[in-house]
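tool=predict chain=A
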Amino acid sequence: MKEVNCEIIQDLLPSYIDNICSKPSKKLVEEHLKSCTKCKAEFDNMNKKMDTEKLSSQDNQIDYLKGYRKRRNVLIKLSILLTIIVLTMIFLINVFNSNVLLDIPLYVDVNKFNVEYMYVKENKGINSSTGETYTYKTLEVYLYSEEYKDNYLTGSYKFLEGDKEIYYNIASKKLPKGVEYTCCGLETSFKLEDSIERIYIKDNKNNTKEIWNKSMKVQSEEEWKKWYIDSYVPKEIKDLYNMSYDNISISTSVWKDLYNKNLLNTIK
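tool=predict ok
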């Protein structure tokens, strides 16, 4: 066979290694490599270099796939978290829009409230330890403000033994959209311990207003019932509910309905 120039063989080596050369070229290269140590060394060197590049490429692909998996896992976790947040928000919105009161305190000014009525009531209790009956007094108070007549008003206070003053905290709660509150005012009861000297109403801006002190003359329950029926309740309501001094159990609802004019409109 005619000797082939080494440069031609070395030009064919890349194609031979990639197995893309023609059959005659492949045969020519193989015959030449059997007898030419120089080209055989070049062939081995090119093979080694290509194996290293291939390995490096595979490592890069593996690193890329690892990074991709890590990014994918992060995205999956973020998607799950976002889904939980969205579902929680939807749940809360549905709860807030349902027919329940939202626990959102709103400011009301206690200086705009008046005591519409107040009386002392005699109560009976039973001692849980001894079973004995005892009596105690409560101050029944109804507070009203024309400005807040359509608000859902709330009130609370804490009393510790030995306290001389009671601070009754008044606030309002927002009603859900579409829910109407047909009552007005705020009624509450205070147990009159011997130590109590004054009672105040208080708002969340720390404004206070005294509504009772120990020296005040306050109606008894019987006096209040007589005043309420004789001076306030219209005759048509007395007849409708058959109200008398001994039967006044619906006093509060009638009082609130009158202020809202719902009951009177119904009667008319």
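The first helix runs from residue 6 to 17. The chain has two domains: 6-97, 105-267.
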